[in-house]
Amino acid sequence: MFGLPTHLNTRLKLFEKVSLLLVVLVVVASVNIGVIYTYHQQAEQVGNSVNIAGQERMLSQRMARLATDVQQGENPDNARDRLQIASVRFEENLAALEGGGTVPDLALNPDAAAIADRPQVTLRGETLTAAPDSLDPELAALRSSWDTYQPHVETVLTADPSTAEFQESVQYVNRQSDELLSRSDSVTAEFALVLRERRGVLVQVLLVLLTVDIGVALVGAVAARRYLGLPMADIARVGQRLARGETEPITDIGLPIDTSLPEHQQRSELAQLSHSFEAVQSYQDTASKQAQALARRDFDDPVLAERIPGKLGRSLDQMQTDLPGYIQELRTTTEKLEALIRASPAGILITGPKGQVKRWNPAAEDMFGWSADAVEGAANPAIPDGDRADFKELLSTAIVDGPISGAEKRWQTKTGDPVDVSLSVAPVPGGEETLDGVMIVVEDITDRKERERTLRQQRDELETLNRITDLVLTITQELVESSDQDRIERTVCSSLTESEVYESAWIVGRHGSDPFSVRTAATRSQIETGSEIDQSHGLYSLVSTAFESGQLQFETGFTGPVFEGVAFGENNRDFAAIPLAYRETVFGVLVVATGREYAFSDREVSGLRTLGKTVGFAIDAITDKKLLFADTVVELTFEVTETTLPFVEPTTGLDCRLWLEGTVAGTKPETLDAYIRVENVSLQAFLDRLENEPGIIEVSPIMTESEPYRVKVSFGEDSKLQQFSQRQARLQAIELDKGSGTYTLEVPRNADIETTVGLVQSIDSNSEFIAKTEAERQAALGAESGVSVREVLTDRQFEVLKSAYFAGYFEWPRNSTIEDIAADLDLAGSTVNHHLRHAQLELAELLFESDGGRLDEGT
Q: CB burial class (10 A; 0-12, 13-18, 19+) of residue 680?
């Protein structure tokens, strides 16, 4: 039964057997593919026809709608173009359905790109075969309907819309579109029926082919087992025996071999195996010896010169040829890797699983300062002692979970300087699934971290500056509305504390040489008014420096209590002392405390300095206002003999007498005009003497005919007279006779006399304080009506009136003219005349509404 197959199995080699089997399988597969492809193509052609028939249905509806658009639409020309396209496509589709052919893709709206609300509609083209004979009735009916319908479409396309023929064709197209639609549906349904029939046939063919394939597969499986599988199993057993070194003849296997054939015709590997057994025994012994020589890398062993035939021999020969090259390539790769590690700009470390250093490249030496010889074999010295446990945990994570990238740490150099680093950690495998170590690539990111810290600091500075700006605006509004110094200071302290920028804020001051103490604190602060700053605390020195220099001071890292019995300030805090100053006068020191990072940057300090100046200006304005409108003032008299104050030296050298009539603010910023009387001296000599007086910028004689002469003297902002007004004082009188005499200043009743005297004597240390007198100002003009001169006159009217008075404008004959006064005030003559006339009118009205009074500067 198996004669022919056995004969073939003996004469054919294994690859020939396999090739024969593959040929059979390819033939069966080709038949399957051919049949399936043929039936599938037929079904696909019918499916294409279904699609084209469906297009006919849609086109019949579209032509009816477009015919209406041609008749009634806003753009009939465009509708005709689209109707023409639909009509032509309907004819092409119908012809393809009847006789086969190719229908191309078609865009139904060629102007879709130019009209925003009109999408493009594209009909897909298909390749069709001629319709089956069973569809001839339906296609004939559709053709008949179309042949009747199409002329009316042509009439719609070509006829004048105003003609009756056009109107009838439009009505016909709309009326008969349903019939055309119905015919198209019938064709579509018939094609769909044909498609279902052909798909059913395809399923039956597939079942037949599947049955045939299963039969072929079973026959092939039996043949493969008999002539391939079982013999291969026997060959495997033979190979195992040879692997165990068994060289006895093989007698216990039944190979399907025709032993009657001559030996040269027994081409099968199975037959040749029995004949080659003795040779295999010799080859096995030689191959074992050659393998041992190659394993020892003893390429000069004579056994390597013996040739072994067959695949094993060729493999050994190839191994003998290639192995030296592989070894050299491995050595080259190792050298390249070593060069890469040494030349890498990033630090590369290899550590043992427990953290001991096994490799330390030159970049790591440059980065941290330790040489490789100093660290290899020891623990990594760049890791701070407090971070070693964390580092071991990082190594463990990399060993267990795999490589880690971007772990940011702070290590240290040999000199102790911190270095911000980014670590990439990966295990280094060894042989036999062992771990050789862990490789760590170290990148110095100190510069990047510093940039990040700088950006964060700038962000915090900007936020703080914005808050301070808002505070300045809020406090400025309060300053405008308030006339009370205590209220202003409480507003400042409370606003700063409630802003969350600062933890606390308070204002300190002192009386004379007393210690600095809290004058004002925030409403909800635990710091009490009157609390004295501990003089041993560094803050006291900071406040003292700010008070004396008038410059903002700040310091960081203060510790310990600032006030006795108050817990505030136990921890590290940063303090700033901001002088509340205007001109040369310091009214107090604002102290703010904060524990936030990056406190007191340049922009923040600038904002605080502006805040201090704003508050100082407000306090000064309130002081001037109190002095101006107070009914009772304090007069401070100073003996000025042998001083350098203005007019002392001229009266000494000229033996003359001089007194002050009044002062007016100068026309230029920070200047002062003083009107004086002088006698017992030549006017020219006196004027010449004043030219050498410091601080005087201009001298103008007013009354020159007879003694006492009247002279206007203008002082600059650096003059000593101008400095008096910067000390919360107003110059009230000067009395000098031959260099001896007094200066009298007015200050508010609540002024700190001791401080004021000290400030005045700081201007000239030779001045001697001799008297303090409380003076009641005389009732002002209009007192009975409750209205003062300053209330009815504007600042400019009062200034012009006072300048005219001291310039002798109201005397007879006049000592000055409108033009002279205008020149002094740097105004136009018409402007001075306007203000002067209005001031006189206001005074006249005030005079006749009261019992009379004396014109006084303070009213």
A: middle
Report d(CA 301, CA 288) in Å as an integer. Answer: 13
- Give CA 83 to chain center in angstroms: 58
Contact 555, 575 (CB under 8 A): yes
Q: Which residues pair with 127 in a beta bridge?
A: 102
Q: Could you give the CA distance from residue 852 to residue 859 in angstroms, rounded to a whole number?
A: 13
- Helices 446-481 and 602-629: crossing angle, nearest 10°? 10
Token pair listed for 204: 């039956």
Q: Across-strand partners of 442? A: 347, 423
| Residue 487, pLDDT score | 79
Q: Cα separation of 857 and 805, whole Å? A: 11
Which helix (H) or strand (E) segment holds residue 40: the answer is helix 14-72
How much is the pLDDT for 34? 81
Q: Please report which helix (H) or strand (E) contains residue 799, including its range.
A: helix 795-806
Q: Which pair of tokens denotes residue 294?
A: 């190659």
CA dihedral (778, 781, 783, 786) positive or negative: negative
182, two tokens: 């119905």
Structure-token match 């639909």, residue found: 86
Distance CA(80)–CA(352), nearest Å, equals: 86
By the 8 A CB rule, do 418 and 412 touch?
A: yes
Q: What share of the chain is helix, strand, coil (3-state, %, to 5)?
A: 55, 20, 30
Block mean pLDDT (10 aa), the chain, length 859: 65 71 80 78 76 82 84 80 84 82 80 68 79 82 86 86 86 85 83 80 82 82 73 69 62 64 68 58 66 69 70 69 73 76 79 80 85 84 84 82 85 87 83 73 84 78 73 67 74 79 83 77 74 82 86 81 62 82 79 79 82 80 60 84 88 92 74 89 90 86 86 84 69 89 84 75 85 69 54 78 79 77 80 82 70 42
CA triple 646-620-821, angle to 5 deg = 50
User: What CA–CA distances, in Å, run from 692 to 7, 643, 649, 688, 827?
Assistant: 145, 16, 10, 8, 28
Q: What is the DSSP string of 625-682?
A: HHHHH-SEEEEEEEE-TT--STTHHHHHHHT-EEEEEEEEE-SSTT-EEEEEEEESS-
Alpha-carbon gap, residue 757 to 746, rounded angstroms: 12
**H helix or E strand, kind and range, residue 6:** helix 3-11
Residue 855: the pLDDT is 40
d(CA 212, CA 216): 6
Q: Is 683 exposed, middle or buried (0-12, 13-18, 19+ CB in 10 A)?
A: middle
Q: How far apart are CA 573 and CA 578, in angstroms?
A: 16
The three-class DSSP label of residue 309 is: coil
What length is written for the chain? 859
Q: In terms of DSSP H, where are the helices of 655-794?
A: 683-690, 720-725, 753-763, 789-792
Q: Which amino acid is it at 786?
A: G
- Residue 721 contacts residue 606 (beta carbons within 8 Å): no
d(CA 597, CA 603): 15
Given a contact cutoff of 8 angstroms between Cβ atoms, the answer to whether 559 and 531 are in contact is no
- Radius of gyration (Cα) for the chain, nearest Å? 58
Hunting for tokens 């001296």 — which residue is that?
681
Longest dimension (CA), the chain: 170
Place of tokens 């911000």: 420
Contact 722, 670 (CB under 8 A): yes
Tens digits of residue pLDDT in 421-463? 888 888 877 665 667 788 888 888 888 888 888 787 777 777 7
Tokens of 537: 């605390």
Count of C-beta atoms within a 10 Å radius of residue 129: 15
- Residue 536 tokens, joined: 């041993």
Nearest 5°: the CA angle 244, 248, 254 is 100
Instruction: Tell me which residue of 154, 46, 47 sits closest to 90, measured CA to CA.
Output: 154
